[in-house]
Automatic annotation (TrEMBL):
Keyword line: Lyase, Pyridoxal phosphate
Cofactor(s) the record lists: pyridoxal 5'-phosphate
Superkingdom classification of source: Bacteria
Enzyme class name: lyase
Species assigned in the record: Agrilactobacillus composti DSM 18527 = JCM 14202
MF GO annotations: cysteine-S-conjugate beta-lyase activity; pyridoxal phosphate binding
Pfam families from the UniProt entry: Aminotran_1_2
NCBIfam families reported for this sequence: C_S_lyase_PatB (TIGR04350)
Family: Belongs to the class-II pyridoxal-phosphate-dependent aminotransferase family. MalY/PatB cystathionine beta-lyase subfamily.
E.C. no: 4.4.1.13
Protein name as it appears in the record: cysteine-S-conjugate beta-lyase
Residue ranges of domain Aminotransferase class I/classII large in the record: 51-394
PANTHER family: PROTEIN MALY
Alphabetical list of InterPro entries matching this protein: Aminotransferase_I/II_large, C-S_lyase_PatB-like, Class-II_PLP-Dep_Aminotrans, PyrdxlP-dep_Trfase, PyrdxlP-dep_Trfase_major, PyrdxlP-dep_Trfase_small
């Protein structure tokens, strides 16, 4: 057993105060295990939400709004923009303007809208697999074709294959690149140099870049994340469309509130004309009430959460260090650990190994890329006791297999 530095006292307090048992709460993660994995007893380490209650201020704001008892059509108050913009400015140095922002009921919904808006049936759309699987679904479900420029994985971790990206842009007619930043599932925070290269290629070949920045706040080291809105001092601001939401940061996914940020006025006009043919959403009232309180008051809560995630990652990494063949990707951003179980577990035995031998429910690498058949993704935004259990079960079973 490896010894990991103790969880500090204030993080222990955070876990004690905010951790909840989500069984029997209609939680997808906990209560759909039978339906999704055929076994309700698995320990769920899949889907990207958490076992932590949102900050107290968020719950108070929601309670107060619910007490009003009227839920008619609503406006987004200026105070929302203030709180949202201040968070973006303080955390990431992004200066936003009110007229750039459109609302949606989720980033995945926006991905589907982006594909419909920016491409035509039969078009090829570029993504960098392995990547969050709704990217591919949004393309395929809209009768477009997925063209993956696969990320490279080597000793130095995951990287963009710029040569292949340029070749693809040169030899295919590509209108849209859907980009993930920070990148789920490989945990990369792209450097400014990498982002500039991607943006310059998109500009050169006339490819629209849509950047999904939903994980922007999860930085292992603060200040690492750069939005495509701000790289090269904002040189590419008018080129890009950015999708964000407070839902990953503050565990608000079911409140259905997300942002579409479009700085360029012509693109915005085109988007507005398009989106009204799909839905004329006013967004989610309670989602916005929660988000405003979270942006305004949730910083200290969030920084503790980041501490717990860092601790959980160290537990996983050190426990699996006993089996050096198994690779755990660097966690620069997101709260999702991408682990390659090859060469110990063969692709065709992965499900049995994870579910039957280890009793875990995970996201499988094959969901993110057809090539990643020996990978699993583990969610670390949870009570450390679950991460310790998952890591111990994996280590024990891997050692057993190795014998
Ligand atoms: C990269 C990425 N985009 C979008 C989402 C989901 O966004 P939403 O719940 O707003 O549809 C997730 C959830 O895990 C994600 O990882």
């Amino acid at each position: 057993m490896f010894v990991v530095a103790e969880l500090s006292r204030d993080l222990q307090e955070f876990v004690a105060n905010y951790s909840v048992d989500r069984r029997n709460t209609d939680s997808l993660k906990w209560d759909a295990l039978q339906e999704r994995y055929g076994d309700p007893t698995l320990l769920p380490m899949w889907v990207a939400d958490m076992e932590f209650q949102t900050p107290v201020a968020v719950r108070q704001a929601l309670t107060e709004r619910v007490q009003q008892g009227v839920f008619g059509y609503s406006l987004t108050p200026d105070s929302y923009y203030e709180a949202f913009f201040q968070w973006q400015k303080e955390r990431h140095g992004i200066t936003l303007q009110k007229d750039w922002v459109r609302f949606d009921t989720g980033v995945v919904n926006s991905l589907y809208a982006m594909v419909k808006w920016l491409t035509d049936p039969g078009d090829e759309v570029v993504i960098l697999q392995p990547v969050y699987y709704p990217f591919a679904n949004a393309i395929k479900d809209n009768d477009r074709k997925v063209l993956s420029v696969d990320l490279l994985s080597g000793d130095k971790g995951w990287a963009i294959d710029f040569e292949a990206l340029e070749k693809t842009f040169k030899h295919h007619t590509i209108k849209l690149l859907i980009f993930c930043s920070p990148h789920n599932p490989v945990g990369r925070i792209w450097t400014e140099a990498e982002l500039v290269k991607v943006l310059a290629l998109c500009r050169q070949y006339g490819v629209q870049l849509v950047s999904d920045e939903i994980h922007q706040d999860y930085e292992a080291e603060l200040g690492q994340f750069k939005s495509v809105l701000t790289v090269a001092d904002g040189t590419y601001q008018d080129d890009v469309i950015v999708l964000t939401a407070p839902s990953k940061t503050f565990n608000l996914a079911a409140l259905l509130n997300s942002h579409v940020i479009i700085p360029d006025p012509d693109k915005r006009e085109s988007y507005d004309a398009f989106i009204k043919t799909i839905h004329q959403t006013e967004g989610s009232l309670l989602g916005r009430v929660a988000a405003e309180a979270a942006y305004r008051h949730g910083g200290p809560w969030f920084d503790k959460l980041r501490g717990v995630i860092a601790y959980n990652y160290s537990v996983l990494k050190e426990t699996l260090a006993e089996i050096p063949e198994v690779k755990v990707a660097d966690l620069q951003g997101t709260y999702l650990a991408y682990v390659d179980l090859a060469p110990i577990v063969p692709a065709d035995g992965l499900t049995d190994f994870v579910q039957k031998a280890c009793g875990l429910a995970v996201d499988y690498g094959a969901w993110f890329s057809p090539k990643d058949k020996t990978y699993i993704r583990l969610n670390l935004a949870t009570d450390p006791k679950y991460v310790a259990t998952a890591a111990d079960r994996l280590a024990e079973q891997l050692k057993f297999r190795k014998k």
